[in-house]
Amino acid sequence: MWWVLWLLGALLALFSCLDVWYFLRAGVVILKAWFQPPVFDITAEQILSGRVTFNDIDMCHMNNARYLRECDFARFSLYTRNGVFKAVRALRANMVVGANTIRYRRALCIGEAYELRSRIVTWDDKAFYLEQRFVSSKDGVVCAVMYCKQSVIRSTPDQIMQHLCKRKVEVPEFPEDLQHWVSFISASSQALRAESGLEDKNK
């Protein structure tokens, strides 16, 4: 009987210290994507289907933070199927979210089905830039749209693309709205560096 109490105590400690459901869901998403056909077009749109559950809501519609969580899982699937995760491991690199912005256009309500459409839009010398859209399954309305800056550490997007394609890949043009957002990120970084005195230290 003591081992049952020990197990329950260990599970309680684990669920108290970690977001266990997040890691379980991430594992399932990656495993499912692993067994799906690979996507050789790196910039191709990939779609995950979802439905708003009681675990997602506040005031009968999807909680704002849930959109970002679902985008995480969609990116895991995207990078697994298009080979980016594999290339990152081969190059001993890493990727982190450097910035994101989301616009909420219409609420996704309890029980509503949607498609989460993700694609790599373009990249620069430090990061990939992705667009992720929540599209209502009932009428095709874009309920939310997010831009994500996926920063690459210990490598570059160009090296990842060359590893995948075995050739130099032309960088797609930046859409105008994405250019404005990237300019905002750059201006914000410069202001924060100046505020903390980092600009003076680097002179």
Summary of the model, kept short:
The protein has helices at residues 2-17, 20-34, 64-82, 84-90, 157-165, 176-196, 198-201; strands at residues 46-51, 57-58, 61-62, 94-104, 113-123, 127-136, 142-153. The protein is an alpha+beta fold and 203 residues long. InterPro entries: HotDog_dom_sf, THEM6_lcsJ_thioesterase.
Please write out the topology.
Elements (H helix, E strand, L loop, with lengths): L1 H16 L2 H15 L11 E6 L5 E2 L2 E2 L1 H19 L1 H7 L3 E11 L8 E11 L3 E10 L5 E12 L3 H9 L10 H21 L1 H4 L2
Antiparallel strand pairs: 1-5, 2-3, 4-7, 5-6, 6-7
Helix pairs in contact: 2-3
Family: Belongs to the THEM6 family.
InterPro entries: HotDog_dom_sf, THEM6_lcsJ_thioesterase
Pfam families: 4HBT_2 (PF13279)
Characterise this structure.
This protein has 203 residues and is of the alpha+beta class. The protein has one domain: Thiol Ester Dehydrase, Chain A (Roll). β5 and β6 form a beta hairpin. α2 runs parallel beside α3.
Distance N terminus to C terminus? Answer: 66 Å
Order of SSEs, N→C?
HHEEEHHEEEEHHH
CATH architecture group name: Roll
Main sheet?
A: 5 strands, antiparallel
Number of helices: 7
Family: Belongs to the THEM6 family.
Organism: Periophthalmus magnuspinnatus
Protein name: Protein THEM6
Pfam family, one: 4HBT_2
Properties at a glance:
Thiol Ester Dehydrase, Chain A, THEM6_lcsJ_thioesterase, HotDog_dom_sf, alpha+beta, two-stranded antiparallel ribbon, Protein THEM6
